């Protein structure tokens, strides 16, 4: 392996730059050349590929987003797109690829491997909903940013005696809501993985004001449940009489300088991806499980520990889908006064 | 003057606690007792009044919101409300009041003074739209928080090549938008004080992508113009073809630990309010103008420098209404690439 | 178990307040009364003990330090001190104690248990050097603060082309240095767990300037190795010719609002301590291992998984002493350009 | 004026990058080309000069330090150095220079102007000690960073009942100490502009513990007074019996992302420097006074408002030397409990 490439794909996440830097620096320390690919698979197909040296990644460790940029590119699910991408890789003499991103990115990595280009996937997304790892790159930062924002909202909630519905990102997974909700002392946390009864939600709010001496109430709602505005409307329908406001944290949760922890795990996984390529592996996703680096086949049978399998109809089956920490939902209920 | 009270009124703002602490500590150092009034004029009328000593304000300097809580209380515009409040003040032996808040709070302060209770107003609001001062308590923090959020949004805007409309608070005044827009390097800033042509806005976006090599574009819109969602809809109507997203920073701009600067000016103004009461003044608002403390009569004629006058119909006239720094709008146009 | 107490002991750590809050709230939700003990074992012996309700811990989750205060109190190693403490506990009807702190705190917890007072230890220290847990409460925040400070120092190092020695806390353990060094992209990390050759350190600095196009160099040194000043002096003796500066981060690494992660793990462990007391356990320390809660006997044999054993001479033996992640030292060497 | 250059000189300060960006962007918007000079006057003499376009300054607004780097270069005080620099400027077709830095930088700007190269100075230093401006670029950030650090130290001071001496930067000026001390609620602030009596300092500490119910005490000392270690030693000599610790904030106060305010004033002044060069001015320093842009001759007579004059012996006389806000020292004494 003399030359590898690195790309980011899917939604950006803080720590992606730290992972890119680790790939570049580790590869160079192993005598391997590195190329960057701009805008994910789209850039690969268009040949937007350029040489990277150690200094090119000197100031990116602490920066949010991805300096290689990212893009969704559904065309890469088609054979034609894949072959066009491989042609470009060959043209640049590239022998292996590190792909940083979410599920879609992993599928691309698998296709490349099938076509003879070993590719390694790294889990980069704020949602923490990727199989094969306890933590994704960007999750810790998203939790930190959401927590900081809820802390700020509490200042106003307290000062004015208000109820706030705070919507945080998390399409399928309630992890950001659960962690930031506990960290910020939310009174209620609503996640897609758990049923809720809007009447009970409203009753808890009322009970807090009437019987517990509370002067404010904060409800964190994961976007996968519904929007904060919808949730507040349902609360009003269900009889809420409090001074109710909604804030959607939106895209600020996605940006910002990565936390120290995200930088460390991104660096750790990035360096490991190079080790795997150097050792001749491809079609694997790197993860962190029980504080150790682990690798899983991206596609294969559940028995062999693969993250995804193909069903008889050709559809992708997710083996061991990610589960949010519902024990944390329970924990928060015991802590919310 | 042996006993004074302090209250916060209107929307909460970071630095209100620093001002309260300064009032309490300075008064005690002058041998004056201090009482806190909860929830503004509402708490005054209800007699929600309690003694404060130096230690009670020991840990509030760096905390957002107001530990005295705040509330809007339109009833205080009526004579009945005012007399009820004064009765409570008398009951507690209070001889003067410091009122921290916005315009409405000032009107209350003036009424108290007219009824023989000297009251001093301090400008507490994030919007910076209070007459008689260059800076309000909370403005610097709101700008800092908005700037930090726009910095974060830029990470995603760059990573994905997107246009973002970012809505920031500011009902009548574009100051938060102007300062945070310049500080975060916004490409366009839209404020209520200035006309805009949506076609030009869209043309600038397009020109950036087509002719200037820009890969993203950030537009800061003050809420006083319209909501971010409405603005984006108008852009689409006007022909915008970019990947356009909206984020409303909402209430997070209002909370958070005050900046060092807000703590300093709040402390400075708070201590001065006590000096004024001690010297027998009332009906004045404290401000900072040209880096010096200034005082203005809250009600009177424009000639005597009063902030407000009464029209023949009894309506309140704002003398020298606050003006946003439109030179900063011009400055940003010359810096936006 | 109808009434328990909670105290903090040893050096303060961010997240201790979150743990206290969790103990109080969880206990109340289980129908158990909670008392706080000020200033650790010193306060216990002096009877500085007071009732805590759910609201008393309402605003502490996001605050650094410990609102119960802490103190070192070697007298509690003596039987006399222990009995005096127990007398106070009995006087207040307390039946179990949660102790948050470091090694010394654990020994006290064990003594109480031996005297019939079930006590549970929680690992609270920034150093991450407590046996029986992968992470201590406060470590993540200390790493975050150190990383942020090194990021700032890099601005000046780059601007002036300087070499900086940055001393970070960590008496026996290099964990803070290793994590923050990787997170901030340090060029070299020196920890007590690993030998270093000052000539090699200096040679690497020189090589960076001479052959790698580097314009600055950052060396993170754990205080357990030696002070930053001493290290810099040794570098100069060994022939360093660069523009060398020293910064000791000192106590700022110990304070500050806990990170979201520290708040979550502190809450998680705090609630679990109550579960253990309720279930009748004592003499256990709570930890997090492989992302799960674990408990270990504080004193016993290594075979039964106890954290400490007593040697024949009565001295305390640490079973499975904490080991810093030396693979992270290796990782950083491969990433430092 | 068709082509100008920009350089940073002296100690780095947060906001220098924002000023550089403003110079570059504003000049381009006026049809003027811009060159960057690396490492201040040293780089000028060595010809380390390169073209800058609008995109080159796209990501620097929010970054600390100076991407043009800085250096002290006493040789520029000599005619030979000046002529060598001018030769390089001519070689690159440069007709005017913007110099961002402290006093020494201003002297260089004046020399260039005398030799026929109009140069404009911008005040860039964290110390706020430059004549001709109310605020220097970097001061607000330094105050913010110092305040944040003292907030953190207070957590430990409270938790352990300790006295802390915190040394902050400020060689000749106590401004950082005064502002951050007020903002962080320091109990005492010691600055070079004011005498202090170490016995009184110690007596205040003792009185706080003995008579005011304080459990901790924070003293901020500007480095211009003496080092924190020396100050603490003097306190001990003078009889202090408290648990006394020292922290020197050191270089972290100098780095970090500039505050929104520093970015705004740096942008404002940077754009103005271009206006002045375009209008044919040189030998002026830009400042902000009473919230407005002002310009002062760098060298001349005190009567004409020049910042510096030459004495008969050829020595530089500082007209109207900077004065720290000693009213803030007084303010803090009335607020410290």
TrEMBL record, chains A, B, C, D:
Keyword Protein biosynthesis attached: no
UniProt keyword annotation of rRNA processing present: no
GO BP of this protein: canonical glycolysis; fructose 1,6-bisphosphate metabolic process; fructose 6-phosphate metabolic process
Catalyzed reactions: beta-D-fructose 6-phosphate + ATP = beta-D-fructose 1,6-bisphosphate + ADP + H(+)
Any one of the GO CC terms: 6-phosphofructokinase complex
Activity regulation as described: Allosterically activated by ADP and other diphosphonucleosides, and allosterically inhibited by phosphoenolpyruvate.
EC id: 2.7.1.11
UniProt function note: Catalyzes the phosphorylation of D-fructose 6-phosphate to fructose 1,6-bisphosphate by ATP, the first committing step of glycolysis.
This protein's name: ATP-dependent 6-phosphofructokinase
Organism: Streptococcus macacae NCTC 11558
Name of the gene: pfkA
């Amino acid at each position: 392996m003399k030359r590898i490439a690195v790309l980011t794909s899917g939604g950006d996440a803080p720590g992606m730059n730290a992972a890119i830097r680790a790939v570049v620096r580790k590869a160079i320390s192993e005598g391997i050349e590195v190329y960057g690919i701009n805008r994910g698979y789209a850039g690969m197909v268009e040949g937007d590929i350029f040489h990277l040296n150690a200094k090119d990644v000197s100031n990116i460790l602490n920066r949010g987003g991805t300096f290689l940029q990212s893009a969704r590119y559904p065309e890469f699910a088609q054979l034609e797109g894949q072959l066009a991408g491989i042609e470009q890789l060959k043209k640049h003499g590239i022998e292996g690829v590190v792909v940083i991103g979410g599920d879609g990115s992993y599928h691309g990595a698998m296709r490349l491997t099938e076509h003879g280009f070993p590719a390694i996937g790294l889990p980069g997304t704020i949602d923490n909903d990727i199989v094969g790892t306890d933590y994704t790159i960007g999750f810790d930062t998203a939790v930190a940013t959401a927590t900081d924002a809820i802390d700020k909202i509490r200042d106003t909630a307290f000062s004015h005696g208000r109820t706030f519905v705070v919507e945080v990102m998390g399409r399928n997974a309630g992890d950001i809501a659960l962690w930031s909700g506990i960290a910020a002392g939310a009174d209620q946390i609503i996640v897609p993985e758990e049923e809720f009864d809007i009447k009970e939600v409203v009753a808890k709010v009322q009970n807090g004001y009437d019987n517990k001496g509370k002067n404010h109430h904060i409800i964190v709602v994961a976007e996968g449940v519904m929007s904060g505005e919808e949730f507040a409307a349902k609360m009003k329908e269900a009889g809420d009489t409090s001074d109710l406001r909604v804030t959607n944290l939106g895209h600020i949760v996605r940006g910002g300088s990565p936390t120290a922890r995200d930088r460390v795990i991104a660096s750790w996984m990035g360096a490991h991806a190079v080790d795997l390529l150097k050792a001749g592996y491809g079609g694997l996703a790197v993860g962190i499980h029980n504080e150790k680096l682990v690798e899983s086949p991206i596609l294969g049978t559940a028995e062999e520990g693969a993250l995804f399998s193909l069903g008889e109809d050709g559809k992708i089956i997710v083996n061991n889908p990610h589960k949010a920490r519902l024990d944390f939902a329970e924990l928060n209920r015991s802590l919310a006064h």
